[in-house]
Amino acid sequence: MSCQLAAGNILYENPLLRWVYDIAGTVAPCWAAYLAAGLAFMLLLVNGVLIGTAILTWAERRILARFANRIGPNRWGPFGLLQPLADLIKLLTKESLTPRSADRIVFNLAPILMLMPALLVVAVVPFARNIALADLSIGVLYVLAISSLTILAIFMAGWASQNRFALFGAARGVAVLISYEVPVVLSLLGVVMLAGSMSLNDIVAAQAVPFFLVQPLAFFVFFTGVSAELNRTPFDVAEGESEIVAGYHTEYSGIKFAIMQAAEFGGTITASAVIVSLFLAGWAGPLAGYLGWLWFLLKLGAVLFVFIWVRATFPRLRTDQIMAFSWKFLLSLALINLVATALEVYFLRGDSRTLTTVDLWVMAGINLALAAVAIGAFGRLNRAQVQRVRPPLPVLAPAGAPAGKAV
Amino acid sequence: MLENYFRQYGLVAVFVAVAFAVPVGMLLASWLTSRVGIRPSNPTPVKLDTYECGMQPIGGAWSRFNFRYYMYAILFVIFDVEVVFLYPWAVQFIEMETFALMEVLVFVFVLVVAWAYAWRKGDLEWR
Fold first, then answer.
1. Chain centroid, CA A221 distance in Å
2. Is the N or C terminus of chain B more exposed, i.e. has fewer CB atoms within 10 Å?
């Protein structure tokens, strides 16, 4: 049989998938060959994310330990590399409890729905030139829509547990997620405007200058907003251990707990992959035709390291501070970025209606200055406001001071 | 070209099924270990209680409590609808005339006024 792929097809560009397609095409109808090639790629994607998750749990513990001047897990395998495997076996064979009063169906569905978005987002991420499962023309919208499904899973988990702490955690989680959704979505408008397309492949190709230089405000807002949406540490009130046990996953144990943790770390990986594609020029770099995947992985590692660094550096914020940070600070920055980018594109595009590399560098200069001014000004304004709303606590008498009225 | 377009959405649809099958497979694997006796299962009434720091929970959790953020929810809907209008504009903006820029600036300005009003009235405070 002669199954021919169109030259513009994503599968055509990928030698491995073309090989699967050609082999399957000799014995099966063309649509089945296409499906087989697609499934082969999905296998790679799913395993990539899950193995990446395992490595990330190890790396995060090791690096956090280094930040805290500890050693971290180092017993299983060289440098403790087999620790994720040990954790997996432990969680897989642990007793899995469902509280008597829980809503059983929703309780079991929540971890499934939580892992799904983390896996689904990678479908549109280009890992190397033209290598992605699907180059959707609405890639950015797809990423935003799918990744915000996590809200639903978090609330289902908290609601079905029939536990007050879980429900409080879920309510807080939803509040944080809907608040950070707004600046995140607004910040990507600038990127879409510059690339003139929502396809991630086109956005990577448009980055003659990486967009984290051209759109520093959008990069800052997106990175912060995404780390809030992932419940990473400075924003993790939804599962604050010191306040509400473990938040929405208090009642989860065994394999369901493992799936929820995998969803959280997998979500971090896929979000980093999206950040790399949107702001760090994806697979672009020297010899991108052959080494695109290597550049992608290096940038991914750098972004993940920054996520871990942020977690190690900042203490957890109060809920009211988190809300103020999103609605008063990040939203302002996102709106400034939107208007500034629109005006810059309008005045720099010229008669050809395109942006040259020089234009992008000019924009980068203007926007970096604007970002410094805006972050400084709005940071000062918000700090003044937060202090007015909440006066600092009275300072306790230092130890060794003369005792006053001791009771 | 159009066929290519639908094929890609077809692959994404298949991927949704795969992404659903992965966590379900994990749950099944764990269930299998309980069938062959590796995973224990000795539920007791105390174990199956919800966890409330060691106290016996009194009453269910599904009671009324203050969600506190309906105002955020309303603002979220307003801004998300705004963004739905802005994305198609952003894709085509580089080729559009001056009118498109003015139109969107006015549109964003109206929303900024509403947002500033909510800020001034104290609706952005978490109380």
1. 12
2. N
Provide the ipTM: 0.85
Summarize pLDDT for A241-262 with one digit per residue, the tens: 677 777 788 888 888 888 988 8
Q: Is B52 on the interface with A (CB under 8 A)?
A: yes
User: Does a structural domain hold residue A9?
Assistant: yes
Question: Tokens 């978090």 sit at which residue?
Answer: A154
Q: What is the CATH number of the domain that holds B99?
A: 1.20.58.1610
Would you call B49 and A119 a contact, using CB atoms and an 8 Å cutoff? no
**Rounded distance between C-alpha atoms, residue A135 and residue A117, angstroms:** 17
Among A93, A127, A155, residue at a domain's last position: A93
Residue A102 to residue B62, Cβ atoms within 8 A? no
Instruction: Inform me whether the C-beta atom of residue B103 falls under 8 Å from chain A C-beta atoms.
Output: no
In this prediction the pTM is 0.86
Q: Assign residue A116 a region: left if phi > 0, alpha if psi is -120 to 50, beta otherwise?
A: alpha
Report CB contact under 8 Å: B42, A95: yes
Tally of domains within chain A = 2
Q: Count CB neighbours of B46 within 10 A.
A: 7
A119 and A16 in one domain? no
pLDDT digit string (tens) for A352-393? Answer: 777 788 888 888 888 888 888 888 888 887 777 665 555 556
Judge if B81 and B109 occupy the same domain. yes
> Are A164 and B61 within 8 A, CB to CB?
yes
Min mean pLDDT across A172-181, A255-264, A281-290, A342-351 is at A281-290
Query: B25: distance to nearest CA of chain A, Å?
Result: 10
Cβ-based contacts of A355 with chain B (< 8 Å): 94
d(CA A112, CA A263): 9
Report pLDDT for A222: 92
Q: The domain containing residue A379 runs over which residues? A: 103-389
Are B57 and B73 in a shared domain?
no
In B, which residues are within 8 Å of A42 by CB distance? 14-15, 18
